[in-house]
Amino acid sequence: MALSPPLGLKWRSSYAFTTFVVGIGVATDLVVYSIVVPVVPFQLERLGYHSVSALAGWLLFAYSAGLVICSYSTPSGHFYAEQNEGTIPIAMFSERYQTRRAPLILGLLILVGSQIMFMEAPNYAVMCIARVLQGCGSTMVWVVGLALLCDCTPEQFIGRQLGLAMVGMSVGFLAGPPIGGAVYSRWGWRGPFIFGIIMAMFDLVGRLFIIERKDALKYGFDPAAVTHTAEEEKAPETLETPTVTNNISLISVIVRLCKSSRALVTLALTGLFGLIYSAQEPTLPLHLQSVWGLDSAKVGQIYIASIVPTLFSAPLSGFATDKLGVEWLSCICFALSVPWWAVLIVRQSLVLFIVALALGSFFVSGVISPLMVELATVARQIDDGHVYGSFNLVYGIGLSLFPPPLFTLIVGLVTQGTTLGPVIGGQMYAHLKDGWTAIMILTAVVLALCCGLGFMYIGDKPLGKRLLMRQNRD
């Protein structure tokens, strides 16, 4: 007797619903991450700590350390292999149950637990441990969630759907800081964490409803094969669950990545993106307080004004990537972001500062969609599903101090010591005479480097190689 399909099979397994759930997951993760950004420096000052920017930087580092530690503790590639690479306990769980949804739910529960731990932390050391656990929980949505989305999305729509899902990144950065500042000012230290826990509960509902592609295939429905006409929406006659016969080791993945300049450069650019976004996080609230005398609530309002434009950058760049190609969009976004970070050095006008921060963030966040599409393309070419795990790992390296040695060899050639992220920003601000200016100069230089690397290596036909071929023909 044939099994009855689950209620709402088509819409619960569709790439549209999956995009929505993953986007909500990303937004929740970024809200929980960023809600403490305008709060922690003021709280540390209230508790009597010194060198606050440096301490805040280490707290942000602790999150990324958890992200890196768990990047290969989660099943980041072909979930249907007989064995998945990883470390205890997450890999044991995934190998037994062969599922993406379960790790997503587990990650959210870890996220909630870390918030409670941070909220009730009696000292700074416990705060750091809580942030490490938060990074471990966040890994699930970045690795498993993005892989789940690519599973069920038709190939021609991947760029668009990734761009739409990444709206959650801007929403999270937009909502977190102002909510954190306002709630902290009104209800004190526990307020932001309680808000984050409530939001995570809403996220949990979506993760419980989702149906994976491998389960939909059992009932003759393939969400990745759906087209726009009623006749074409019928599932193919033969549907098979993807399988992988060999367990690919981490060393094998690295060897394959080393053979692909596109993979190496894309992972390096991801790490640099992590550096750019993280270096200013422990210092921006302190800079706004020092120059314009803003408190935590007003710092949160500055985040609203600066991040609103980024709500549009990810989907717009996703659409444009599908039309123009990753090589054009990545170079354009990196190039147009450079001057605005230099403008942020100016201290004469708060309005000018907000505009520059908004435009700089708009173009930088627009890079995410083409980088993800590039990673998806490289993953197919090297026939290895661990590339999204590498994306998560290298993004974390851009935020962390202790990346795994083998990946340090890969990205270290390009990043050359820029793996410190918030630690660099916090230490520069705390110990240099004009730390903010130094951070902005570093950011502009890194963006220019990213533009050059993208020009020479990103895409099937990189712009630099096109130019050289044209000159040779002439």
Automatic annotation (TrEMBL):
Transmembrane segment boundaries: 15-36, 48-70, 102-118, 124-150, 162-185, 191-210, 263-280, 300-319, 326-344, 350-373, 393-415, 435-459
Predominant subcellular localization, coarse grouping: membrane
InterPro entries registered for this protein in UniProt: MFS, MFS_dom, MFS_trans_sf, MFS_Vesicular_Transporter
Any single Pfam family the record assigns to this protein: MFS_1
Compartments, as annotated in UniProt: Membrane
Example GO molecular function: transmembrane transporter activity
Protein name: MFS domain-containing protein
